[in-house]
# Entry
Amino acid sequence: MGRFAVRRVASMVLVLFAITVLTFLIFQKIPNGDPALRLAGRTASPENIASVRHTWGLDRPIWDQYLITMQKVFTGSVISYTQRINVIDQIRRGLPATVSLAVGAGVIWLFWGIVLGMVSAVKAGRFSDRALAVLSLTGISTPVFVVGAILLYVLAFLLPIFPNGGYVPITQDPFQWFWHLVLPWLTLSVLFIGFYSRVLRSTMLDTMGDDYVRTARAKGLSERRVLVRHVLRTSLIPIVSLWGLDFAAVIGGGAIITETVFNLQGVGQYAAQSIQSLDVPPVLVIVMFAAFAVVLLAALIDILYAYLDPRIRLSG
# Structure
């Protein structure tokens, strides 16, 4: 187990290094453009562009440019030349809203995805299975901004039950924190619930035909125990893997539309505002932050799998 964890951490470090190199090349060395002009913004004066070129080492060899860029990112000294603010500080301010959104929505979509997937698998071919299939496909195919707009219109304007947006820190008022996030949680969860339930249904139906499941039934175990202890436990492996990657993506700013619709002022909305204003430094940092979050969480999930299932250890 220890050697597997060391190998996985080593591979994670290599992947993170590759991410930093690719991100640097994408934002600094794409052809047909001056990187200093991209960093400073289209309305920058020649003096500002010259200052950016010197500050980021763009007049030095490429390896010096890479080291200077990484030093700025990891020491928190990246400045947005369009908004004139520290990018890392702005991400820290938006991170509580993004984490709150990701945690709440992640719990909702995982729980209901498992419940509806189990019901669909157990009732496969029946009316309830077909009805859940229609609902799942509807949730998957409906754009997030449409779901958010409908919930806001019905539950915040027609029936003013919930607030119409904004974020309240949990340290300021826990109840208002929860109440302001109910609609964003539901909006972000709809797509994932439909997708997870279909994946779990398919996996459980495949698992029900395996030899060890038939052996468990032959031993006289109850259908409920066979379903929970054998079928569901094995079928949850791909679900947990998907959940980890999706959760990391949301933390890294993947909920841009949801945050924008509900004006949560999180990392995703900050990324959207930076893209809209052609502000490159924040986008560079957020892209790297999102990639790091996905890789780190994927490594943790792999180590957890190896702890739970020795077969993964041997094949890893």
Summary: The chain has two domains: 2-83, 93-276. Residues 87-122 form the longest helix (36 residues). The first strand starts at residue 79 and ends at 80. Residues 2-83 form one domain.
